[in-house]
Amino acid sequence: MSTNGSPSTQPVVLCGPSGVGKSTLIKRLFADEPDSFGFSVSHTTRSPRQGETEGVSYHYVTREAFEKLIAEGAFLEYAQFGGNYYGTSAKAVKDVSEPDPQTGKQKRALLDIDTQGVKLIKANHAYLNPLFIFIAPPSIGDLRKRLEGRGTETEDSITKRLAMAASELGYAREGNHDVIVLNDDVDRAYKIFKSAIDGKLEGKGDELPVEEEEERQLRQ
């Protein structure tokens, strides 16, 4: 699963529904290996949420500025959700993997993107040769509980996110990811996630959850 070189600089593309626990796995990875990985900071046109930091959580830009970057071909991938743009620039990935001027060490870029972004990278930027990892919920019902537990989502927003989750699961069921991680237990999920990134995982990881009627209905 790893490219040649030591350490590997193969980018890691993390995909999965909103609320599935991607941020928790990313934070744990960075805590374990702060000098080995770097987060590719995306651009967005939405406003910062409480606790978010410019240049760390996202690069917050106007819609006009974002569309100018699109026209310039600056993005590896971008998408719209909830009326806002989100995108990963080629520069953001390049900045992560640039050698440290003092140590010469390179970090691996970690990208957290949606299915549309995965499709764009596969179609237009195959040269990146990333490791595609899909983080799956135990069920759509479990994901609903997680989103409701946030206390920040409206019912309409939850419905939209679940519909997107069903679509993402459908894409994952087609075998479009290198590794599947079922986040039913964060400690167990992290072990599989870390093994995959280290190139030590046998096979493709977990099985996806059994497809439920609710998932099929959400995709209609």
TrEMBL record:
<keyword id="KW-0067">ATP-binding</keyword>
<keyword id="KW-0418">Kinase</keyword>
<dbReference type="InterPro" id="IPR008145">
    <property type="entry name" value="GK/Ca_channel_bsu"/>
</dbReference>
<dbReference type="GO" id="GO:0005524">
    <property type="term" value="F:ATP binding"/>
</dbReference>
<dbReference type="Pfam" id="PF00625">
    <property type="entry name" value="Guanylate_kin"/>
</dbReference>
<dbReference type="InterPro" id="IPR008144">
    <property type="entry name" value="Guanylate_kin-like_dom"/>
</dbReference>
<dbReference type="InterPro" id="IPR020590">
    <property type="entry name" value="Guanylate_kinase_CS"/>
</dbReference>
<feature type="domain" description="Guanylate kinase-like">
    <location>
        <begin position="9"/>
        <end position="198"/>
    </location>
</feature>
<dbReference type="InterPro" id="IPR027417">
    <property type="entry name" value="P-loop_NTPase"/>
</dbReference>
<protein>
    <recommendedName>
        <fullName>Guanylate kinase</fullName>
        <ecNumber>2.7.4.8</ecNumber>
    </recommendedName>
</protein>
<keyword id="KW-0547">Nucleotide-binding</keyword>
<comment type="similarity">
    <text>Belongs to the guanylate kinase family.</text>
</comment>
<keyword id="KW-0808">Transferase</keyword>
<dbReference type="GO" id="GO:0005829">
    <property type="term" value="C:cytosol"/>
</dbReference>
<dbReference type="GO" id="GO:0004385">
    <property type="term" value="F:GMP kinase activity"/>
</dbReference>
<dbReference type="InterPro" id="IPR017665">
    <property type="entry name" value="Guanylate_kinase"/>
</dbReference>
